[in-house]
Amino acid sequence: MREHFEIQAQDAAGRIGELRVPRADVTVETPALMPVVNPNLITVDPARFPEFGAEVLITNSYIIRNDDDLREQALDEGLHEMLGFDGAIVTDSGSFQLAEYGEINVTTEEILDFQYRIGSDVGTPVDIPTPPDVERERAESELEETQKRLAAAEGVETGEMLVNAPVQGSTYPDLRESAAEHAYATNLDVFPVGAVVPLMNEYRYGDMVDVVAGAKRGLGADAPVHLFGAGHPMMFALAAAMGCDLFDSAAYALYARDDRYMTVRGTEHLDEMAYFPCSCPICTEHDPEEVRQLGDAAREELLAEHNLHVSFAEIRRIKQAIERGDLLELVEERARSHPAMLDGYRALLDHADQLEETDPASKDAFFYTSTESAQRPEVQRHRERLARLNPEGNVLLSEGSRREEYDASWRVKPPFGPYPRELSQTYPLTAETPDRMDRDGYEAAAKGVARLAALNPDTEFTLAHKGWPASALDYVPPRVDVVDLTLQSESVEDVESESADESDGGSSEE
Amino acid sequence: MREHFEIQAQDAAGRIGELRVPRADVTVETPALMPVVNPNLITVDPARFPEFGAEVLITNSYIIRNDDDLREQALDEGLHEMLGFDGAIVTDSGSFQLAEYGEINVTTEEILDFQYRIGSDVGTPVDIPTPPDVERERAESELEETQKRLAAAEGVETGEMLVNAPVQGSTYPDLRESAAEHAYATNLDVFPVGAVVPLMNEYRYGDMVDVVAGAKRGLGADAPVHLFGAGHPMMFALAAAMGCDLFDSAAYALYARDDRYMTVRGTEHLDEMAYFPCSCPICTEHDPEEVRQLGDAAREELLAEHNLHVSFAEIRRIKQAIERGDLLELVEERARSHPAMLDGYRALLDHADQLEETDPASKDAFFYTSTESAQRPEVQRHRERLARLNPEGNVLLSEGSRREEYDASWRVKPPFGPYPRELSQTYPLTAETPDRMDRDGYEAAAKGVARLAALNPDTEFTLAHKGWPASALDYVPPRVDVVDLTLQSESVEDVESESADESDGGSSEE
Predict the structure, then answer these.
(1) Are B389 and B240 in a shared domain?
(2) Are residues B396 and B267 in the same domain?
(3) Coil, strand, or helix at residue A481?
(4) How far is CA B100 from the centre of its chain?
(5) Which residues in chain B are closer than 8 Å to A340, comparing Cβ atoms?
(6) ipTM (interface predicted TM)
(7) Cα(A214)–Cα(B426) distance, integer angstroms
(8) Fewer Cβ close by (within 10 Å): the C or N end of chain A?
C-alpha cells in the first residue's frame, strides 16, 4: 500500500483522493490542478494561487539550476520562500527540454539532489519522453532507459521528498501497461503519464485515452496519477473519469500571453469575442472590449486569472460530480465541445469494463443523454448480472403491465434490458431516459434479452415491447416470442404507472 | 415592419436583437433575461441588477394594484423609482393568478391603464393561459377570448408603452401557429408564448419545442418573442436556438429561498454539495459549508446572487455562440444535462427545416459531436443543394483520392454526402468530424449519395468509401458501384492530405 494516497470517493474510474505531501506538511485533495510557474516569467503571483483554489504548483528545476541567479536564490531561500507559496511544490526535471532540444546537461541523480536541496516537495527524475507513433523498438529501448533512471532515482537520498515515477511507452498501450507495472513496483511515489502532450496538441483524445487506460491497468488503485501536460479544462473531466488525479496547467499563462481565453468548451481568441461567456469575477466585471483596451501586462494578467478561475471551477465541478456519482454525465457534456473530445469519450467507453471495476454499484440517478449512454459501464454490468438470476417456466419481459398467464412477469427497459420487477427501484434501473429513445438504447436492451435467453435455455420468453425498431429486434433470438404493444389494444392499460404496477403484489410473484 | 426590434446576428433560429423600449429610453440587447421582482419580497435589490448584466426586469402589476401601500407608492413615485431600477420594466397582468386561482378582479382595459399610470415600459393584457393537454374545444374557445382581449388592448391609450400580445393554444402546435398569426396582425409589440410553465415543470421539453415552433411559424422574423416563465439556465440555449428573445427568471430567488443552487446542468441542493461547481464571485469566495452556516437571509441572498450570475453568464455564452455561429454546438452540450433536454434537442432537430430558414449559409466551423449532429439543418441543406449540381458521365464519389479514369472525381464526407472538390473549403464541408464516426453520420452521407443518384439518372456513379457500415450502404441504390477502400491496396495512397489533394489541379477537372 502507498500510504501517502487515500481514495475518498469514486465514480467510473475517477476518484477524489488525498495526497499527503510530508515535506510540505500539506494534504492535497485530488483531482488537483497544478499551475505551472515559469520562474523567469511570473504572470500571476503564486502567492495568489490559493485565491483560485490551488493547493499545489509545479515549476521546473532544470530552468532554475541553469540560471545563476535563480539557482543561488533557490538554494539560499528555498523554493517556497522564493515563490511565496506555502502549498506543495512539484519540480520537473528537464525531461521536457530533453524531448524538445535533444539533450540536457544533468543526470537523474544530480537533478533529484538539486530538487531536494532547493526544497521541492515532489521531485522528478530525468525520464525519456518517447513521442507518439515511433517504431516499437525505439519505444522499448527508451523505456528501458527510463526504467534505469527510475532505479537510479530510488538510490538518491531525498528525505521526505516524494519522487515521481514517469510512465512512458509511446502509443503502445501494452508498453504503457508494463511500464506502469514496473514503475508501481519501485518505491517511488507519484506516477506521471508522460509524453501525451503531442497527442493533446494534435487533438488525438481517443489515442490519449487508450494510452492512459494502458498505464492505469498497470498501476494499483492507490497510485496517484499525474497526466503530465494536461492543462485545458475542456478535457479534465474525461481525464478524471479515466482515473487521473493531477493535472498541470502552463496553458493558463501561455494562452493569456497570446490573448487566448479558455472555456470548458474550447478556446476563444480575445479579438473575436463580443461577450465573455463566463461568470468568473473577471468576466462579471469586464467585457471583451474593455480588456482589449488594456496594456499588454494588465490584459495578460486578467486573461490568466480568468483561465485559472475557469480551470479550478471545472476541478470543483468534477469533484462535485464524483461525490454525486454523475461524472460520466459531465463527460457526456464535455464530449460535445469538439469532435476530438467525442472520440475521447467513445474511446473511454471502449474501456467500459475497466471503468466498471471501480464504479459504485449504487448512485443517485443514471441519465440517458446520448447514444453513447447505451455503452456505459452500468449497462454492461446489468447485462453481466443477468447470470445471477434464474427465471423459470414461461416468462414475460414487458414494457407494459404484468400478465397473470405467465409464471413470471419481468420489466424490460432500454438500454438495460430485462429485470425482475423487485429491482425496479434499484440503481441503475431507476434511470431517467428520454421519451425519444434511440435505436442504440433499444438495441442494448435487446442484447440483454438475447443474453437472458442464452443463459436460460429451458425457459420460455415473451418480449412485449413498445415499438422497438427492427435493428433492435434483430438481436432477439427467434425462440423468444415478440409482441409489439403499440399494435395491440392492450396498450391502453399500459398507461398505468410503474409504481402502481410495482405496489400491487409485485414481489410475491417470482 | 416592427420598428422597435432589429436583428443583429442569427444562428439556427436564434438571434441577437435590439429591442428599443421608448418609454424607458433604453435599448435592450436580446436574448435578454428579465429577473422577476416580487414587490412584496425583494431578495436581491433591483438597483444591483446591472451588476449581473440585467437591462430589463419584470414585475407584477396585479400584485401591486391589489396592495394598498404598493399601489399608492407606485402611482405616486412610478415603478422605476419604487424599485430603484433605471432599465426597462415589464409588467405582468395577473394572468398567472387567473390560471392559478381561477379568477381575478381586473379587466384588460383596467390593468393596462394601471400599468401605464405606474410607468411600466411594457404592459400586458389579461390573457387566458390555457394549460397543456386540454380538449381542443377548450383551447379554441379560450384562445378566442384571449384574442378579444388583445383587441381590447389595442384600444387602450398607452402612449409610448409597448404592449405584450400573448400567444396561447395549449399543446396544439397548429393553434399556437394561428394564435401567433393573429397576434402578429395586431398593432401590439412583444409576443410572449404563454402557459408553457406546466410543460417545463414536468420536464416536457420536447412538447415545449413543438409548441414554440408552432408559435414561431405564425410570427414574422421581426417579432420579439418572450418565452414566459422560462427561468432555468439549463434550457436557455435550446429556447434561444428556437428563436426566443426574452426569458424571465423568478427561479433565481425562489430556488435560493429553498436552498437550491442552479447550474447550466440542472439544480443542486445546498445540503448535498461538497463543492461549488462554478467560477462566479460567490462560488470563488465561499464554499458550501460556509454558506450553510449563514443565517437564512444572508444564505438566500448569496444563493440568489449565484443563481443570477450563472444565468446571465449563460445568456452571454449564448450571444457569443450566435456571434460565432456555434449555437447548435452549445445546444448539443446542454442536451446532455438531462434526458428531457435530449428530448428537447431531438424535437428541435425535427424542425430542422424551420431552423434552416434563418441559419447563415456560412459560419466558422461545423463540429460533429453526436449522432444528433447528423440531423442538423446544415446536413439537410447540403442534401437539398445537390439539386443545383450537374455531375455528368462517369463520376467517382470518394473518401480517398481522385482517379484519372473517371470523368469527375468528387469527395464524399459523412455526414454530408458527396460534393465537388472545389467546395471542400466551404461551409459546412469544412466540418470537423470524429475519427470514430457513427452509423448515423455514415447513413446521412449515404442518403446524400442516393439523392444525387436520383437527381442524375443518366450519370454513372461509383462510391469509394472507407469501411461504411451495412446500415449506411443499404441506402445506396444498386446502380451505384460501391468499393470499400479499406479492403484495397489503393488505400495506401489515401493517406495524402485533403489539401494536397485539392491543390493538384482540382478545379480544372469538372
Answers:
(1) no
(2) no
(3) strand
(4) 27
(5) 432, 434
(6) 0.94
(7) 39
(8) N
